[in-house]
Amino acid sequence: MIDKYSKYRELISRIDSAIEDGFYLEATWIAYAILEDRLVSALKESGGGPSIRMLGPKIGKIKSRQTSSLKMRQAFFGDMIQRLSDWAKKRNALMHALADERLDVPAIDAESESVALEGRELAREFSAACKRFKKLNAK
């Protein structure tokens, strides 16, 4: 079994390769998987609770816990959580637009590149924030 750090390093490398090769939807999907996993980790580390299925409600729970936890504010600082929420909405809109008539293929390509690039940065940033949060909680 591969350790979490090695797996994340491999997944980030795959995001980089997918973006480099123009496979933006693949990069977005991997970023989504990383972010989903890190949100679950942050929720467990901040007190657990019942399982939450969707990304949006997980982000909402992090936001609400952040207001009452100095350590969460220190780890997940600035507008990171809001940017994550905004990205999730863009990603959802893109996924729903793939098969309908709202966007033509060039527009989907442009939007998918933007969402992939932003997702890559958020995956890196949020993973680092989760690591900070665990270290703060260990003190």
UniProtKB/TrEMBL annotation:
Superkingdom of the source species: Bacteria
Protein name per the record: HEPN domain-containing protein
Organism annotation: Idiomarina piscisalsi
